[in-house]
From TrEMBL, chain A:
Function: The electron transfer flavoprotein serves as a specific electron acceptor for several dehydrogenases, including five acyl-CoA dehydrogenases, glutaryl-CoA and sarcosine dehydrogenase. It transfers the electrons to the main mitochondrial respiratory chain via ETF-ubiquinone oxidoreductase (ETF dehydrogenase).
PANTHER family (alphabetical): ELECTRON TRANSFER FLAVOPROTEIN BETA-SUBUNIT, ELECTRON TRANSFER FLAVOPROTEIN SUBUNIT BETA
Gene source species: Rhamnella rubrinervis
Protein name: Electron transfer flavoprotein subunit beta
InterPro entries with a match to the protein in the record: ET-Flavoprotein_bsu_CS, ETF_a/b_N, ETF_b, ETF_beta_N, Rossmann-like_a/b/a_fold
UniProt lineage: Eukaryota, Viridiplantae, Streptophyta, Embryophyta, Tracheophyta
Family: Belongs to the ETF beta-subunit/FixA family.
UniProtKB/TrEMBL annotation, chain B:
Record's protein name: D-2-hydroxyglutarate dehydrogenase
Endpoints of the signal sequence: none
Keywords: FAD, Flavoprotein, Oxidoreductase
GO MF term set: (R)-2-hydroxyglutarate dehydrogenase activity; FAD binding
Entry GO terms, CC: mitochondrion
Amino acid sequence: MKIMVAIKRVVDYAVKIRVKPDKSGVETQNVKMSMNPFCEIALEEALRIKESGMASEVVAVSMGPAQCVDTLRTGLAMGADRGIHVEATGALFPLSVAKLLRALVEVEKPGLLILGKQAIDDDCNQTGQMIAGLLNWPQGTFASKVVLDKEKHEVMVDREIDGGLETLCLDLPAVITTDLRLNQPRYATLPNIMKAKSKVIKKFTPQDLNVEIKSDMEVVQVTEPPKRKAGVIVSSVDELVDKLKNEAHVI
Amino acid sequence: MMMEKWRASRRFLRCSAAVSLFDRILTPTSANSACNSAFGFVNHRGSQLCNENQKRKIGTCFHFLRGDRDTTLRTSMGTGIGSTVGLQHRCFGSAASKVQRNPLFSTLNSDDISYFKGVLGEKNVIQDEDKLMIANTDWMRKYRGSSKLLLQPRSTEEISQILRYCNSRCLAVVPQGGNTGLVGGSVPVFDEVVINLSLMNNVISFDKVSGILVCEAGCILENLMTYLDTQGFIMPLDLGAKGSCQIGGNVSTNAGGLRLVRYGSLHGNVLGVEVVLANGDVLDMLGALRKDNTGYDLKHLFIGSEGSLGIVTKVSILTPPQLSAVNLAFLACKDYYSCQKLLVEAKRKLGEILSAFEFLDNLAMDLVLNHLEGVRNPLPPSMHDFYVLIETTGSDEAHSKEKLEAFLLHAMEVGLISDGVLAQDINQALSFWRVREGLSEALLKVGACYKYDLSLPIEKLYNLVQEMRERLGASAKVIAYGHLGDGNLHLNISTPQYDDKILAQIEPFVYEWTSMHRGSISAEHGLGLMKANEIFYSKSTNVFSIAREMQNNLDTDLCTYWNMEVRAKRLS
C-alpha cells in the first residue's frame, strides 16, 4: 500500500511574525521557512506505518513556489521515499490544493492520504476535509491515534473532539488529518540527509494535472491584533474598587 | 586621608553566617566570638589550619544550603555582577577563601535606613526577610550572606548618592544584578548592603545604522535580545542564564557564552560604560563610537572587574545584524581527537558562518537525558563518547545549508563524525540547545556539584578530565562540557553530597594542573568568592601588585580580591 502525505512550507513556528506595512499579508521575505508542524507529524505517522510493514512506500507532496523543494528534501531526509512538487506561484487556497491532490491521487493511487490538520499560516483546517469530500473517501480528522488493520482493510482513528476522544473505524482508502498529540516527529539524521540527495522529486504543474487554479477568495487586509495594554498597579483597595466600578463597570 | 585608605577594604568577617540556615542575622559581636569558638577559626597569619577549617565550614554550609530550597530562585546558569573578597589569609589550594569580617566596616543603623529611604523612597529600601533571603543566596545555593538591607536604585544619580553615603559611613556594599553568578560573587559575604540594579532596566537608545545599543545595566539579557529582534539585530553574547542575567553583570564579569567564537569577547563589543566609583563619583565613559584612540581606554579595566572597581550603570554595546540563515547540527564523535580535528575543519570549511562550537561528553549527555524534563536525545539511541554542537549563522539560507551539509558529509566520510542530526526548524534547534544549556540545571538536581571553569590548550583539555576520573574513581562522577571553540572546559564533579575528602582530591590538583599548562583557573565565570584566593595560579605576583595599586588609586571601597592584611599594614 502506498501512503501519500501532503506537506506545506510555512513561516517557521518559532519566528515572531510581522505584518507587512501595506497590510497585504505577513512578512515572508528573509524569514525562516520550515515544514508545517502538523505536516511533520503526518509524515512521521506515515513513516511509522511503513516501518511496521503495513505500507510499501511513502510519497511526500508539496505545492507552491520553487523553494518548496527544500521542504520536500527535509521530508525525504526524514525517510519519505519519493517527492512530488506541484509548482504554482500565487496564493493557493485549500480548495485548489484539494483539487490538485485529487488529481495526484488519481495518478499515484495511494491507500491512505495523511495531512496535517491545519497549516499554521492560514489556520484553515479545510484541505483534509475537502479532499475527502472530492474523493468521496472516509475521513478521520484531528487524529491522536492511528491503528491500521491490513487484513480488514480498515483503520481505527482516535479523534480529539471538544468532549474528549472519539474513535472511528474507517474503510481504506481514507483521509486522516493529524493533531498534535499523535506522535513526536523524528530528526533528520546525516546518513538520511545523504540518502535523500539521490531520491527523486517529480515536478508537475497545475496544467499537467488538468486543474484550473482560480480562487473565489481574496485577502483584503491583514492587521495585527490590538496590543495588550500594560497592567496598572493600584495603591489601595479604594482605588481598586473605584476602578472596577467606574472604568471596568463590573461592579 | 587615613579614613579613605581605611575604607578601601570592604570585606569583613564571616563566621557562622553561612552555616546556620536559620541564623541569618548576626550581630557583629556574636559573629566575632562565635566564629572563633564554633569552628576553631584561627586568626593567625599564614596558618595552615585555615585549610581544614575552611573545608569544614564549607562542607557544613553546603550541607545546609543544598537541596530543595526556594523555588523562587532562578534556575539558569550564567554570570552576574561580582563582588569579591579580601582575605585574611592567603591560603593556596584551599577550598574557599578564609574570610573574616573586617571590624573596620560599620554596621547599619536606623539613621542609615532613613537616609536611604530619603534618597530612594520607601518602596526601594527593602528589609523584608523573604526578599532578603533571595538576595542573599546565590543561584548554586552554595553561598549565603546575611545582609539586612536591599536597595533598588533607579538611576545613576541615586547610586552615586548611596555610594557616597556608604563611603562616608564605612558601610560595605555588594552590587547585584541577576544573581546568576557561579562563583559567589553576586551575594554578600557578611552583612553588606545589597545594591540591586534590577530597576534600572531601560533601553536608552539604539542606532539602527550602526547597531549600537545604549542601555542601563539592569536590563535582562533576554529582554535586550527580544528588543533587538524587532530591530533586526542580535546581542553579541548568549548564555544559558539569559532569562535572568543582566547586562551590567555580564559586562562586569566579562561574560563569555556560546557565541564568543564568532563575535568575540565583551572587550571587543562593549564600546562604553558609565560607572559609579566607590566614593560616589560618576565616570562617564559611555562612548558609542567604534573607534576612539584618545588616551588610555579605561573602560577595559571595568569590564571583568566583577564590581571591584565600581558599579556599572550604563552600557553601550555594538550589536551584530541578525542574519536569517541559522543552522544547527548535533553530532557524535568517537574520541576527543576527532572533536579537535572537527574544530579545525569547521573553522576552515565553515569559516565565516561558524557561530558556535560546543562539546559535551557521554556522562554529561546521560545526566541531561535522565534528569531534565522534556529533553530527548537528538541522536538515535546508542551511546557515543563525545557530542558536538555546531551552529552556523549566515545571510543566505541555501548557501549556508549547502556549506554545512557538504562539511558534515565530508566529516562523516572521513570518520570524524560517527552520527549526527541537522535541525530542520527553530524548535528542533531549541531542543538541541536545551541539551547543552540545561547541563548546569541538571547538575544541581542530582546533588552536590563542584564546578570549575578552565581555559586550557585544546589538545590537553580532555586529559584533565581523564586524570580527574582516575583520581576520584567511583567516588564521584566527572562531567565535562564546554566551549570547545574557545578552549574553555566546564569541569563538573558531581557527588551525592559535599564531601571534604573528595574536595581534597580535587583542589588544589585542578588548579595546579591548569597552572602547569598555563591555563586560566577561571575562563569566564570570574573569581568571586570561590576563586579569589586562587588568582595566583593564573596571574603572577607582580601583575597582581600593579592591579592592586590601580585599585587603590581608584579609591574603591566596594570589594577587593586583595589581601586585607597588607592593607591593614599600610594603614598603620
